[in-house]
Design brief:
Radius of gyration: 15 Å
Strand order of the largest sheet: 1-2
Strand content: 15-25%
Shape: globular
Order of helices and strands: HEEHEEHEEHH
Number of helices: 5
Bound molecules: zinc ion
Helix content: 25-40%
Largest sheet: 2 strands, antiparallel
Number of domains: 1
Length: 138
Amino acid sequence: MTAILGGQRRRIAERAAYQCEYCHLPERCAGALHEVHYIIPARHGGGNVPENLCYACLSCILHKGTDIASIDPLRPDDMIVVPLFHPRQQAWAQHFRLVDGRIEGLTPVGRVTVRQLDLNDLQRVEIRRRLHRLKRQP
Ligand SMILES: [Zn+2]
């Protein structure tokens, strides 16, 4: 993996408005700084180019790992492989919605991403609820 230099990291963080591009956790609410993450890892052919980089919280990065796809939890018997959400190529609101702090997958892409990245762990749901109450998050 090629190192992400300070200026590049800052540009990617600014592009993401300093929030995780998967779970929308603001960096200021996380216990650690978010990181630049390869959406498609090098082992799957992804490159060190802006179109393949996103800003993500450590929880999303750890749960995603090198995964790029999974099986739709609504249709497990069909064994259809569905790609995970791609923050550079897809619009978050087309695949997810926020309901009382929980992120719901609206599409197969949304559903596999919610499950694989464990987007509704108790800590992040509670943070989203508190942010909503404080009117800091639309
Ligand atoms: Zn996240």
